[in-house]
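tl;dr need the bound structure. longer version: we got a ligand (magnesium ion) that a collaborator sent over and nobodys looked at where it sits. i said id run it. heres the input, straight from their email, havent touched it
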Amino acid sequence: MKNRAVFLDRDGVINSLLYHDDKGIYSASDMGEFEVLEGVREAIHEIKGMGFLAIVVSNQPGVAFGYIKKEDLKKIDEYMRRELGIDAVYNCVHHPKYTGDCDCRKPKSGLLLKAADEYDIDLDASYMVGDLLSDILAGKVCKKTIMVSKVNCALCKFIQEKDAEPDFFAEDLLGAVKIIKKTEGKQNENLC
Ligand SMILES: [Mg+2]
């Protein structure tokens, strides 16, 4: 039997987004800025308890821009594996302006397809959780997509216009896990 996965976007799902007057909203560039959001450890524990792999799929164009060092990105990856129980991390470190086109930058599904190949994952039995439309579009190769957002109402109309409607909305990763549990529970009921 193939593996199942819950694919997780990183910034805004696992760790908090940051704000700086000059930079605007930005993501952690090193461990000093990496703040794990409340409930994330428990959520990942539950994901794994349900038998899913927990795999991070993240755009990190800061590497292409030059403000994120590859060593610092690696330290965050290692931390997520060691301390949060993440099974694997796939980063896209490209940006069209600096490194040309690639197949992995979300909204493309390349990171998920690569993980599926390397970890023998059944995408039709897997989930994608993210906080941006690009996550939802990339996750369309999965069974279900869940958007983690506290501003979902304002986004709904725009999402429909973009044909990027997620299957579900959740407030945070723990909320997303509850939805996955419910969806899987219903599926099992149908099988009985
Ligand atoms: Mg994000």
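gonna send this back to them w/ a short note. The first helix runs from residue 40 to 49.
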